Recover the amino acids of this structure.
């Protein structure tokens, strides 16, 4: 188990004094080993710092990606809501246009029917006027004929009404 409170640096390794003893280790080999250990610790510290830097960079990128993901999701939801609103609005407008077109069509049909009724009434009136005119013309022609017949026979002209009323 490693003690978390125990930290040793390459400088600590270089400065550590082993002390002297009578039949101890070869001082030159101890110094060489200490230098190798210190260099290895420096190399590992550099690698550790690089890895820490990369880890911080990756964490920052991850945070940025999560923020972008969140923003994209929010934009997607907003776009979906907007699409639904636009579709609903278009349907409402289409229904309104259809209702207006139907109302306009109904109005045009009613105007046409009214015009047809007016024309039929006018035609009936013209037909009555024609019949009245023809009846008047018949009466006039009958009077004229009666006057012509009377002038040929030397008698006084009698109106057709008088002729109808006269006893036979």
């Amino acid at each position: 188990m490693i003690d978390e409170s125990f930290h040793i640096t390459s400088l600590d390794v270089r400065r550590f004094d082993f002390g002297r003893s009578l039949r101890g280790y070869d001082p030159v080999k101890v110094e060489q080993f200490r230098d190798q250990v210190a260099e290895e610790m420096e190399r590992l510290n550099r690698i550790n710092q690089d890895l820490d830097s990369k880890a911080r960079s990756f964490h920052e990128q991850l945070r940025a990606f999560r923020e972008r993901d969140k923003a994209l999701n929010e934009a997607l939801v907003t776009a979906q809501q907007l699409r639904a609103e636009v579709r609903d609005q278009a349907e409402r407008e289409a229904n309104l246009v259809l209702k207006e077109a139907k109302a306009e069509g109904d109005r045009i049909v009613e105007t046409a029917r009214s015009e047809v009724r007016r024309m039929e009434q006018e035609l009936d009136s013209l037909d009555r006027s024609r019949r009245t005119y023809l009846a008047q013309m018949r009466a006039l022609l009958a009077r004229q004929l009666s006057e012509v017949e009377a002038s040929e026979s030397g008698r006084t002209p009698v109106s057709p009404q008088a002729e109808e009323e006269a006893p036979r």
The longest helix spans residues 27-153. The chain is about 85% helix and 0% strand. Residues 10-149 form one domain.
